[in-house]
């Protein structure tokens, strides 16, 4: 009898705890979150509270981020002080009020002004990009800053790392950052760390999970940025990691899967903004404050230019959990709304939040030709199905979906609004606007990843990316609504289930 009483007592206590967790979660989880993210977390907590709650406290709680919010604000304040006398956009550059408003938005959210930058090339061949970055490092005289999400030692990347070693031997200061979780699963991870130390390179892991060293971060956060800065005059930004295009995975090699990326080489005042972004991340991980005093040329007037000039008006837009205002999401939405005739979206992972989905479909309804470039099959199962769950509404709205053939992964990330230049003087004047960088068009990049993007307001970079778009489309197949409606019910079910987790991926 006493056993039955004790069992009933424990059952009652369990039910009380279960319902208490659920009631508290309903009132606490939605605070300060998008509805999609709140719904996903509540679903996990309500269905499996004894697992969902610990996961939420570990990965969903905003309090773990307080130090990064504070440091990010300090960095923003410092950047604002450096740029105190710098206007939002370069003096002498003709920009419409609409373009200036987008630039002002980015400046308000990140403290970064628009500056000029010379386009030295858009690199879309993986190996050519690595060779060019190696050449630029070999030209370094003072310092090299490297910040790349994934790094791995392999025959293909070895020459780049050896160029860093040669730079150190010449007396060049080399600082290097790479993401802990992003890199640890690839072959050669331990060898890489040992080699970097032996080479004399000053390096740190970003967002390390090392509680035994009192270095612990939320395990779901990533620093996804990709930058190379040499001597303050040359910078690279884009989507490519420092790893073999097969990502050194046997299955990828077996089926011939490789990643396709894009990197942009720039010089001029805009490099100072890349440098400031790196300095903020370096300070977070090393506690060493770098000199981020702005280059003098950033304050100087620049001559007028046009859309065909290699001198571009560009603006660096960093984003991530350290910001509370989602700068890259607001920038992408602004560019989508800016499009009048044609919009190009290229992203390996297209999992939009409500605002971006509505912006893209609204562009279709107002007559904009919207082209979405994605891989035929993403490299991650959950992401592939979550992304697919949006195709129905996109196709019905009129979005033209180009699928780059598998097994290749189209990993390039850029957005273009009205990139086509007409030679017809009677044609309406359209203002191209674009962005290229590390950010995917998914909720992880909007809220959980530290990203860096470069918005392009004027110059030939947009045309170069438009040419790259044509190359990608020539190799892709178009997904039609009729073909998509023929998918199996099993595929529809899995897509919809994965969509429920899209805000947490």
Automatic annotation (TrEMBL):
Residues 219-246, 406-445 form the PLD phosphodiesterase domain. The keyword Transferase applies. It is found in: Cell membrane. One of its GO terms (cellular component) is plasma membrane. Pfam families: PLDc_2, PLDc_N. GO terms for biological process: cardiolipin biosynthetic process. It comes from Corynebacterium callunae DSM 20147. NCBIfam families: bac_cardiolipin. This is Cardiolipin synthase. The chain crosses the membrane at residues 12-29, 41-64. Its EC number is 2.7.8.-. PROSITE patterns: PLD (PS50035).
């Amino acid at each position: 009898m006493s056993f039955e009483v004790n069992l009933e007592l424990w059952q009652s206590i369990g039910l009380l705890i279960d319902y208490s967790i659920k009631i508290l979660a309903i009132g606490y989880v939605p605070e300060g979150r998008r509805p999609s993210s709140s719904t996903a977390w509540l679903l996990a907590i309500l269905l499996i509270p004894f697992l969902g709650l610990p996961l939420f406290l570990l990965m969903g709680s905003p309090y773990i981020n307080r130090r990064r919010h504070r440091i990010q604000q300090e960095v923003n304040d410092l950047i604002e002080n450096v740029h105190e006398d710098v206007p939002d956009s370069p003096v002498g550059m003709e920009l419409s009020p609409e373009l200036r408003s987008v630039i002002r938005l980015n400046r308000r959210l990140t403290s970064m002004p628009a500056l000029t930058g010379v386009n030295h090339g858009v690199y879309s061949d993986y190996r050519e990009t690595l060779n060019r970055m190696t050449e630029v490092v070999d030209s370094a005289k003072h310092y090299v800053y490297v910040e790349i999400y994934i790094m791995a030692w392999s025959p293909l990347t070895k020459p780049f790392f050896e160029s860093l070693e040669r730079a150190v031997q010449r007396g060049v200061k080399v600082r290097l950052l790479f993401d802990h979780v992003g890199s640890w699963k690839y072959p050669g991870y331990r060898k890489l760390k040992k080699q970097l130390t032996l080479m004399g390179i000053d390096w740190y892991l970003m967002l390390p999970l090392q509680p035994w060293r009192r270095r612990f971060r939320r395990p779901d956060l990533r620093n996804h940025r990709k930058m190379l800065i040499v001597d303050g005059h040359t910078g690279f930004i884009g989507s490519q990691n420092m790893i073999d295009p097969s990502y050194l995975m046997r299955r990828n090699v077996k089926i011939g899967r490789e990643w396709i990326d894009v990197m942009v080489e720039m010089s001029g005042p805009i490099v100072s903004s890349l440098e400031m972004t790196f300095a903020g991340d370096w300070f977070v991980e090393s506690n060493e404050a770098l000199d981020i005093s702005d280059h003098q040329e950033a304050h100087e007037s620049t001559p007028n230019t046009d859309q065909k000039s290699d001198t571009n008006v560009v603006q660096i837009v960093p984003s991530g959990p350290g910001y509370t205002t989602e700068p890259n999401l607001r920038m992408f939405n602004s560019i989508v709304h800016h499009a009048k005739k044609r919009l190009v979206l290229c992203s390996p992972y297209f999992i939009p939040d409500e605002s971006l989905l509505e912006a893209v479909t609204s562009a279709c309804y107002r007559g904009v030709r919207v082209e979405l470039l994605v891989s035929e099959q993403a490299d991650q199962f959950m992401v592939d199905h979550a992304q697919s769950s949006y195709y129905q509404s996109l196709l019905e709205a009129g979005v033209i979906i180009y699928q780059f053939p598998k097994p290749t992964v189209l990993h390039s990330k850029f957005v273009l609004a009205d990139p086509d230049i007409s030679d017809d003087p009677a044609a309406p004047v359209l203002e191209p606007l674009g962005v290229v960088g590390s950010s995917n068009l998914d909720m992880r990049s909007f809220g959980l990843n530290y990203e860096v993007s470069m918005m392009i307001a004027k110059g030939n970079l947009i045309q170069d990316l438009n040419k790259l778009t044509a190359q990608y489309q020539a190799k892709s197949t178009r997904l039609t609504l009729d073909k998509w409606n023929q998918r199996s019910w099993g595929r529809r079910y899995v897509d919809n289930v994965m969509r429920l987790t899209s805000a947490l991926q």
